[in-house]
Specification:
Blueprint (H helix, E strand, L loop, with lengths): L1 H46 L4 H42 L9 H18 L3 E8 L2 H8 L1 H17 L6 E6 L2 E7 L3 H17 L1 E4 L2 E4 L2 E7 L8 H17 L5 E3 L4
Parallel strand pairs: 6-7
Antiparallel strand pairs: 1-3, 1-6, 2-3, 4-5
């Protein structure tokens, strides 16, 4: 859903840029003609000549032809530069493989989201999602198979989320999720269902069916006025360690303060 609205916003930005490009060209053309006529008039007024009408016509035609071409080209270059900047920004914001938020962007948006939830007094649940024995998949079937697993897992998780939730890939096989306006009981049901769905999922790679499981470390925002995103993540990380050490393919909740 987030990506859909981003696409809509990108199309609107493109239309606005094209509209402003035409307006910019028209403005520059009118100004160029006006300046050309003014300079010509002042020059002829000072020197005097019988060719004044012809010169005025030339002074109008030349900028009327050259100004649109020059301004259109410059505007095109400006738009290209803006597109390149947007491309670099998106590369920094999103993980190139899964299309999820990058670690840096997840932390930035996550902090903003927690502040908003704090203002609205909404409950929040944070979860680490870590694929079990992912290295074994890479070692056995190759990194291309590992990439296919990551993409399939990311797509599955995205389907379970609401627009207001936040999902990112923090690195390797580690993902992070923030569930907004969600209490512990609801989060436990939702994440447990996700864990079971992942365990049942089969990923076909090169005619080879791959099975995966995921371990989850979960922490609820127990003290919103005393806890930030980093401390919330630390508690969830401890819970994830507990889930891993207890046999994997399970969900563990962080202890309260």
């Amino acid at each position: 859903m987030r990506r859909f609205y981003e696409t809509e916003r990108t199309l609107m930005d493109y239309r606005e840029r094209e509209k402003s490009r035409w307006l910019r060209m028209l403005f520059i053309t009118v100004i160029s003609i006006a300046i050309s006529l003014l300079i010509t008039f002042l020059t002829l007024l000072a020197t005097g000549t019988e060719m004044m009408p012809v010169i005025f016509i030339i002074a109008t035609i030349v900028p009327a032809v050259t100004a649109p071409i020059v301004s259109w080209s410059i505007s095109g270059l400006m738009i290209k530069v803006q597109k390149l900047e947007e491309t670099h920004r998106k590369l920094a914001m999103y993980d190139h493989l899964t299309g999820l938020l990058s670690r840096r962007e997840f932390l930035a948006q996550g902090n903003e989201l927690l502040q908003m939830c704090q203002s609205n007094n909404q409950p929040v649940v944070f979860a680490y999602l870590d694929l079990d024995h992912f290295k074994k998949i890479n070692d056995t079937y190759g990194h291309a198979a590992g990439d296919e697993v990551l993409v399939s897992f990311a797509n599955l998780v995205k389907k379970t989320l609401r627009q207001e939730d936040l999902l990112g890939r923090l690195g390797g096989e580690e993902f992070a999720l923030i569930l907004v306006n969600t209490r512990v009981v609801e989060a436990k049901q939702k994440l447990e269902l996700l864990r079971k769905t992942v365990a049942k999922m089969t990923i076909n790679y090169a005619e080879q069916p791959l099975k995966i499981t995921v371990s989850l470390g979960v922490a609820d925002w127990d003290r919103p006025h005393k806890e930030n995103l980093i401390s919330l993540m630390k508690r969830a990380d401890n819970a994830l360690y507990s889930a891993k050490s207890s046999g994997r393919n399970q969900l563990a909740f962080a202890k309260l303060f």
